[in-house]
Amino acid sequence: MRLHPEVAKALQSRKPVVALESTVITHGLPRPTNLELAQTLEAIVREAGAVPATIAVVKGQVAVGLEPEELEALAKDEGAEKASLWNLGALLAQGKWAGTTVAATAFLAHKAGISVFATGGIGGVHPHPYDESADLLELSRTPILVVSAGPKSILNLAATLERLETFGVALLGYRTDHLPAFHSPKSPYPLPARVETPEEAAQAFQAARGLGLPGATLVLNPISQGLPFEQVQRWVEQATQEAARTGITSRALTPFLLRRISELSGGQTDAANLRLLQENARLAAEIARALSQGGGPSRR
Ligand code: PSU
Ligand code: MN
């Protein structure tokens, strides 16, 4: 694992750092939007006073913080793999390039000593065919703070929320009482806790870490100008039926569904995805700052 010098320095001096995942770059968004977005997220984190650490697999090495040329090469590489926990070791051994999922990024960021991580939407339980993201299990055993706009809208939200509860993942609605639904700011499902400020989110995370709770704290940040929930559900239903009919499963399922609802919505879901990613990066940087001002989370 290679720590970028700027990231290493920030961690040493307890300056705020925000980890960013990279499957959204390699598999979540169309080219060349993906590169622009990746660069924009890093810039947003910097503007908000934190150091960005985009995590990816670069030529068989885990990189925590990428050089600009590496970010560009990753975004342009159509053969880049999707690194989750089940293939991470093999991808390293084989010298591959890969985007890291939420599961892999959370694991690696925590290992590197980073406390805050921003993504778009987390993976979860798919309605059909049977598929469940490794994000859920990893979030249950990695004490890191993750900012997302909710589980991705292609998922069975009720089942995903149940899983998060069962697995003991701490959930904080950011200025909301209901689970945000990625492209939509609100779903019908109530959350167990709510915070109003980055400081309150940081305090809840520190309290959980102080106890030594094993799981992540998920800050759920509703998209500011989202799409109507029922509308998105209709696109998702059609895309899901197509996936079932054509036999798309496993790690190909999430990328297929995201691309298909983007086509069905005339690009509206991609526009929403870009917006929520930027909003989450900003909030994550604010929380990272609040954490570092509070002395940082107590370590186990
Ligand atoms: N957030 C986005 N777009 C994405 C993802 C997240 O806005 O493409 C990625 C994340 O890396 C997440 C992955 O971990 O999709 C989920 O894939 P799966 O369901 O196969 O675990
Ligand atoms: Mn899967």
From TrEMBL:
Mn(2+) binds at residue 131. The keyword Acetylation does not apply. Substrate binds at residues 82, 102, 133-135. SUPFAM superfamilies: Indigoidine synthase A-like. It catalyses: D-ribose 5-phosphate + uracil = psi-UMP + H2O. Its EC number is 4.2.1.70. This is Pseudouridine-5'-phosphate glycosidase. The gene is psuG.
